[in-house]
Design goal:
Distance between the termini: 35 Å
Order of helices and strands: EHEHEHEHHEHEEHEEEHEEHEHH
Oligomer: single chain
Helix content: 25-40%
Number of strands: 13
CATH topology of one domain: Rossmann fold
Bound molecules: nicotinamide-adenine-dinucleotide, UDP-4-deoxy-4-formamido-beta-L-arabinopyranose
Length: 338
């Protein structure tokens, strides 16, 4: 009998790649997703890659009746909680919606888990919880001071999980703070289907290369970094997916709370990413310097040693592989999932 894992937001970017890794590790996967930022087609592609299907239920995590039905139907061994909203600027404009989808949805899910005695969860958090004050490279014990609504919504869920474990140590909780996941599954069948106004670097680069946008705006070139552009810790989404499976496996026997950075431990500047992308895609990407984007920090990257010492996890794929895989996905699927 395979263990069943609930993946919330499993049709999304991180969730879909994680489903592929879960299936490869011989788990059964059940997805709950409201498809607010994804399409069911992603789940067909996962099946195409894996040769095994994913069970899924369309619905919102805040719907208690839906969760009651789903948790009654399957005996889950654990939950990967990837569902959530993630657009920084949108969150500043619509804080209530973000707290509803990120915080309220998590509370409703935890309630259902407790009611059905499912106490193993991996939560998708973000390096954005560290905020400006922390020293680079960011270590997990650094104080949290997010400077955005989105970041605070993630920190609030982390606080809830912390309090939950304090009150009842029989929970097995993993908090994964991802740095900048990019790239796609090497098949080119699943990837980041960026909809609406694209704000992140890699999807924007892909859209310029495919001809959907004229040029890449480079937000600031007067930062105190080697070439003046912002520095981030980009990591391949398949490494992120593997990190989830390893954390889930670790939590099968270890209770309490485990908080880990998922990053490579090194940073690349915007210009370095642009050059790597041009090499990988064979496309020239016109770019233009524009003023700094509000809220951006100059440079940050992970101290990734804890994930290595606790899980034996480290990011294996380099920047050229991240760019080549992102481009394969984009060029094979110019309009995303249709
Ligand atoms: P995504 O938008 O591609 O996937 C999120 C999925 O959750 C989507 O399929 C969406 O339809 C679903 N969803 C949203 N609200 C829901 C709700 N209330 N009920 C049911 N389904 C809902 O985003 P992603 O990049 O895959 O991110 C996954 C998680 O990782 C998010 O929690 C995000 O905050 C976090 N994260 C992402 C990044 C990143 O750069 N992609 C970095 C750090 C953390
Ligand atoms: C990367 C670098 C930009 C676009 C965000 C969230 C973080 C996490 C990952 C969810 C920066 C520069 C970007 C462009 C550019 N998500 N840039 N031109 O801001 O590091 O992180 O996504 O949790 O929480 O904050 O990622 O990809 O937007 O930017 O010059 O068109 O690229 O200034 O230096 P960011 P990003």
């Amino acid at each position: 009998m395979r263990q069943k894992i609930l993946v919330t937001g499993g049709a999304g970017y991180i969730g879909s790649h994680t489903c592929v890794e879960l299936l490869a590790a011989d788990y059964d996967v059940v997805v709950v997703d409201n498809f607010s930022n994804s399409k069911p087609a992603a789940l067909d592609r996962i099946a195409q890659i894996s040769g095994r299907s994913v069970l899924w239920h369309e619905g919102d995590l805040r719907d208690r009746a839906l969760l009651q039905r789903v948790f009654s139907q399957y005996a889950f061994a654990g939950v990967l909680h990837c569902a959530g909203l993630k657009a920084i600027a949108e969150a500043q404009r619509e804080p209530l919606r973000y707290y509803q989808h990120n915080l309220e949805a998590s509370l409703t899910l935890l309630d259902a888990m407790a009611a059905h005695d499912v106490r193993r969860m991996v939560f998708s958090s973000s390096a954005t919880v560290y905020g400006e004050g922390a020293r680079v490279p960011y270590r997990e014990e650094a104080p949290l001071a997010p400077n955005t609504v989105y970041g605070r919504s993630k920190m609030m869920v982390e606080d809830v999980l912390h309090d939950l474990v304090q009150s009842d140590p029989s929970w097995h909780i993993g908090i994964l703070r991802y740095f900048n996941p990019v790239g796609a599954h090497p098949s080119g069948l699943i990837g980041e289907d960026a909809r609406g106004s694209v704000n992140n670097l890699m999807p924007h680069l892909c859209q310029v290369a495919i001809g959907k946008r004229a040029e890449l705006p480079i937000f600031g070139h007067d930062y105190p970094t080697p070439d003046g552009t912002g520095v981030r810790d980009y990591l391949h989404v398949m490494d992120v997916a593997e990190g989830h499976v390893k954390t889930l496996q670790y939590l099968a026997t270890e209770s309490g709370l485990l908080t880990l950075n998922l990053g490579t431990g090194r940073g690349y500047s915007v210009l370095e990413v642009v050059r790597a992308f041009e090499r990988a895609s064979g496309k020239r990407v016109p770019s233009r310097y524009v003023p700094r984007r509000q809220g951006d920090l100059a440079s940050y990257y992970a101290d990734a040693t804890r994930a290595s010492s606790v899980l034996g996890w480290h990011a294996k794929r380099d920047l050229s592989e991240m760019c080549a895989d992102a481009w394969r996905w984009q060029s094979n699927n110019p309009d995303g999932y249709i």
